[in-house]
Amino acid sequence: MPISDWPPGERPQDKFARHGADALSDAELLAMLIRTGVRGRSALRIAQGLLSHFGGLRALLHAERTDLPPCCGVGPARFAQLKAVVEIGRRQLREQMTRGNPLENPRATRDYLRARLRDVPHELFCCLLMDNRHRVISFTELFRGTIDGASVHPREVLKHALKANAAAVILAHNHPSGVAEPSRADELITRRLRDALSLVDIRLLDHFVVGETCCVSLAERGLI
Q1: Which of 13, 40, 111, 117 lies at 20 to 30 Å from 92 by C-alpha?
Q2: pLDDT tens column, 1-11
Q3: Structure pTM?
Q4: Cα Rg for the chain, rounded, in angstroms?
Protein backbone atom coordinates (compact mmCIF):
# COMPACT_ATOMS: atom_id res chain seq x y z
CA MET A 1 0.00 0.00 0.00
CA PRO A 2 1.41 3.45 -0.87
CA ILE A 3 2.25 5.59 2.16
CA SER A 4 -0.23 8.20 0.91
CA ASP A 5 -3.02 5.67 1.56
CA TRP A 6 -2.02 5.04 5.16
CA PRO A 7 -4.32 6.34 7.93
CA PRO A 8 -3.53 9.91 9.04
CA GLY A 9 -1.13 9.89 11.95
CA GLU A 10 0.69 6.73 10.86
CA ARG A 11 2.50 8.23 7.88
CA PRO A 12 6.12 9.20 8.62
CA GLN A 13 5.56 12.85 7.77
CA ASP A 14 2.56 13.00 10.13
CA LYS A 15 4.55 11.42 12.95
CA PHE A 16 7.37 13.86 12.28
CA ALA A 17 5.00 16.84 12.47
CA ARG A 18 3.37 15.65 15.70
CA HIS A 19 6.24 14.15 17.64
CA GLY A 20 9.49 15.26 15.99
CA ALA A 21 12.29 13.33 14.31
CA ASP A 22 13.15 11.31 17.43
CA ALA A 23 9.82 9.48 17.16
CA LEU A 24 10.68 8.04 13.74
CA SER A 25 12.63 4.87 13.03
CA ASP A 26 15.65 4.91 10.72
CA ALA A 27 13.50 3.40 7.97
CA GLU A 28 10.81 6.07 8.39
CA LEU A 29 13.35 8.91 8.23
CA LEU A 30 14.91 7.36 5.15
CA ALA A 31 11.47 6.95 3.57
CA MET A 32 10.88 10.68 3.99
CA LEU A 33 14.00 11.33 1.92
CA ILE A 34 13.08 8.75 -0.72
CA ARG A 35 9.58 10.30 -0.79
CA THR A 36 7.88 8.06 -3.37
CA GLY A 37 7.87 4.34 -4.00
CA VAL A 38 8.02 2.26 -7.14
CA ARG A 39 5.56 -0.25 -8.52
CA GLY A 40 4.73 -2.74 -5.79
CA ARG A 41 6.92 -1.10 -3.11
CA SER A 42 6.31 1.93 -0.93
CA ALA A 43 9.10 4.32 0.02
CA LEU A 44 9.14 2.69 3.46
CA ARG A 45 9.63 -0.79 2.02
CA ILE A 46 12.46 0.52 -0.16
CA ALA A 47 14.05 2.09 2.92
CA GLN A 48 13.70 -1.11 4.93
CA GLY A 49 15.27 -3.12 2.11
CA LEU A 50 18.25 -0.78 1.86
CA LEU A 51 18.87 -0.79 5.61
CA SER A 52 18.69 -4.58 5.64
CA HIS A 53 21.12 -4.86 2.72
CA PHE A 54 23.71 -2.47 4.19
CA GLY A 55 23.17 -3.28 7.85
CA GLY A 56 22.30 0.26 8.91
CA LEU A 57 22.26 3.94 8.04
CA ARG A 58 25.98 4.56 8.34
CA ALA A 59 27.01 1.97 5.76
CA LEU A 60 24.20 3.01 3.42
CA LEU A 61 24.97 6.71 3.52
CA HIS A 62 28.67 6.10 2.88
CA ALA A 63 28.07 3.64 0.04
CA GLU A 64 28.89 4.37 -3.57
CA ARG A 65 26.30 4.21 -6.32
CA THR A 66 27.79 0.95 -7.57
CA ASP A 67 27.28 -0.61 -4.13
CA LEU A 68 23.49 -0.42 -4.38
CA PRO A 69 21.72 -3.70 -5.16
CA PRO A 70 19.96 -3.91 -8.54
CA CYS A 71 16.31 -2.86 -8.67
CA CYS A 72 16.57 -1.37 -5.18
CA GLY A 73 14.23 1.51 -5.97
CA VAL A 74 16.91 4.21 -5.72
CA GLY A 75 18.01 5.78 -8.98
CA PRO A 76 20.73 8.38 -9.60
CA ALA A 77 18.57 11.32 -8.48
CA ARG A 78 17.53 9.72 -5.19
CA PHE A 79 21.06 8.52 -4.54
CA ALA A 80 22.32 12.08 -5.04
CA GLN A 81 19.79 13.27 -2.45
CA LEU A 82 21.11 10.78 0.10
CA LYS A 83 24.72 11.84 -0.53
CA ALA A 84 23.65 15.48 -0.18
CA VAL A 85 22.39 14.71 3.33
CA VAL A 86 25.81 13.31 4.26
CA GLU A 87 27.57 16.37 2.85
CA ILE A 88 25.23 18.75 4.69
CA GLY A 89 26.12 17.00 7.95
CA ARG A 90 29.83 17.31 7.22
CA ARG A 91 29.53 20.99 6.39
CA GLN A 92 27.59 21.67 9.57
CA LEU A 93 30.42 20.09 11.56
CA ARG A 94 33.01 22.07 9.59
CA GLU A 95 31.09 25.27 10.30
CA GLN A 96 31.16 24.54 14.03
CA MET A 97 34.88 23.89 13.91
CA THR A 98 35.84 26.90 11.80
CA ARG A 99 33.87 29.46 13.80
CA GLY A 100 36.58 29.62 16.40
CA ASN A 101 39.88 28.18 17.53
CA PRO A 102 40.04 24.37 17.10
CA LEU A 103 42.21 24.21 20.21
CA GLU A 104 39.42 25.84 22.21
CA ASN A 105 36.78 23.52 20.73
CA PRO A 106 38.54 20.15 20.49
CA ARG A 107 35.27 18.20 20.45
CA ALA A 108 34.11 19.97 17.27
CA THR A 109 37.48 19.26 15.67
CA ARG A 110 37.31 15.58 16.59
CA ASP A 111 33.72 15.30 15.36
CA TYR A 112 34.65 16.88 12.04
CA LEU A 113 37.70 14.68 11.51
CA ARG A 114 35.74 11.54 12.35
CA ALA A 115 32.99 12.54 9.91
CA ARG A 116 35.56 13.09 7.19
CA LEU A 117 37.84 10.11 7.78
CA ARG A 118 36.21 7.33 9.80
CA ASP A 119 34.47 5.57 6.91
CA VAL A 120 37.16 6.01 4.24
CA PRO A 121 38.18 2.45 3.21
CA HIS A 122 41.84 3.37 2.62
CA GLU A 123 44.31 5.43 4.62
CA LEU A 124 44.00 9.15 4.01
CA PHE A 125 46.46 11.72 5.37
CA CYS A 126 45.13 15.27 5.75
CA CYS A 127 45.89 18.56 7.42
CA LEU A 128 44.04 21.53 8.84
CA LEU A 129 45.85 24.72 7.88
CA MET A 130 45.41 27.63 10.30
CA ASP A 131 46.33 31.30 10.56
CA ASN A 132 48.25 32.93 13.40
CA ARG A 133 45.08 33.11 15.51
CA HIS A 134 44.50 29.39 14.97
CA ARG A 135 41.46 29.93 12.78
CA VAL A 136 41.01 27.27 10.11
CA ILE A 137 42.03 28.31 6.60
CA SER A 138 41.34 25.00 4.87
CA PHE A 139 41.18 21.23 5.18
CA THR A 140 43.51 19.55 2.69
CA GLU A 141 43.85 15.90 1.64
CA LEU A 142 47.53 15.16 1.05
CA PHE A 143 48.23 11.44 0.70
CA ARG A 144 46.25 8.25 0.02
CA GLY A 145 47.20 4.63 0.48
CA THR A 146 49.54 3.11 3.03
CA ILE A 147 50.69 5.90 5.32
CA ASP A 148 54.31 5.39 6.32
CA GLY A 149 57.55 7.31 6.35
CA ALA A 150 58.14 6.69 2.66
CA SER A 151 54.74 7.88 1.44
CA VAL A 152 54.38 11.08 3.50
CA HIS A 153 56.69 13.70 2.04
CA PRO A 154 57.46 16.75 4.23
CA ARG A 155 57.95 18.90 1.13
CA GLU A 156 54.30 18.35 0.12
CA VAL A 157 53.05 19.37 3.55
CA LEU A 158 55.33 22.42 3.48
CA LYS A 159 54.17 23.36 -0.02
CA HIS A 160 50.51 23.42 0.97
CA ALA A 161 51.16 25.21 4.27
CA LEU A 162 53.27 27.93 2.66
CA LYS A 163 50.83 28.39 -0.22
CA ALA A 164 48.03 29.00 2.29
CA ASN A 165 50.27 31.28 4.37
CA ALA A 166 49.51 29.04 7.34
CA ALA A 167 51.03 29.71 10.74
CA ALA A 168 50.01 26.40 12.29
CA VAL A 169 48.96 22.92 11.22
CA ILE A 170 46.95 20.03 12.64
CA LEU A 171 47.56 16.68 10.96
CA ALA A 172 45.07 13.82 10.77
CA HIS A 173 44.85 10.39 9.22
CA ASN A 174 42.61 7.38 9.59
CA HIS A 175 43.22 3.73 10.40
CA PRO A 176 40.79 1.70 8.24
CA SER A 177 41.23 -1.18 10.70
CA GLY A 178 39.17 0.90 13.13
CA VAL A 179 41.90 0.90 15.80
CA ALA A 180 43.02 4.46 16.53
CA GLU A 181 46.16 3.53 18.46
CA PRO A 182 49.11 5.45 16.93
CA SER A 183 51.80 3.24 15.45
CA ARG A 184 55.53 3.71 15.74
CA ALA A 185 55.48 4.93 12.12
CA ASP A 186 52.84 7.53 13.06
CA GLU A 187 55.10 8.86 15.80
CA LEU A 188 58.12 9.05 13.48
CA ILE A 189 56.15 10.82 10.73
CA THR A 190 54.85 13.31 13.27
CA ARG A 191 58.34 14.21 14.46
CA ARG A 192 59.67 14.52 10.89
CA LEU A 193 56.86 16.87 9.92
CA ARG A 194 57.13 18.86 13.15
CA ASP A 195 60.85 19.43 12.53
CA ALA A 196 60.33 20.30 8.85
CA LEU A 197 57.55 22.78 9.62
CA SER A 198 59.55 24.42 12.39
CA LEU A 199 62.26 25.33 9.86
CA VAL A 200 59.80 27.78 8.26
CA ASP A 201 58.26 28.92 11.59
CA ILE A 202 55.05 26.90 11.22
CA ARG A 203 53.86 25.13 14.36
CA LEU A 204 52.57 21.58 14.36
CA LEU A 205 49.84 21.70 16.99
CA ASP A 206 48.57 18.13 16.90
CA HIS A 207 48.24 14.93 14.93
CA PHE A 208 44.99 12.97 15.25
CA VAL A 209 44.56 9.29 14.42
CA VAL A 210 40.94 8.50 13.55
CA GLY A 211 39.49 5.07 14.27
CA GLU A 212 36.08 3.46 14.50
CA THR A 213 35.00 4.85 17.86
CA CYS A 214 37.56 7.45 18.84
CA CYS A 215 40.07 10.01 17.65
CA VAL A 216 43.46 9.89 19.40
CA SER A 217 45.56 13.03 19.89
CA LEU A 218 49.32 12.57 19.77
CA ALA A 219 49.76 15.95 21.46
CA GLU A 220 47.72 14.79 24.45
CA ARG A 221 50.04 11.80 24.72
CA GLY A 222 53.11 14.02 24.72
CA LEU A 223 54.29 12.76 21.32
CA ILE A 224 54.69 16.18 19.66
Answers
A1: 13
A2: 456 666 665 67
A3: 0.65
A4: 21
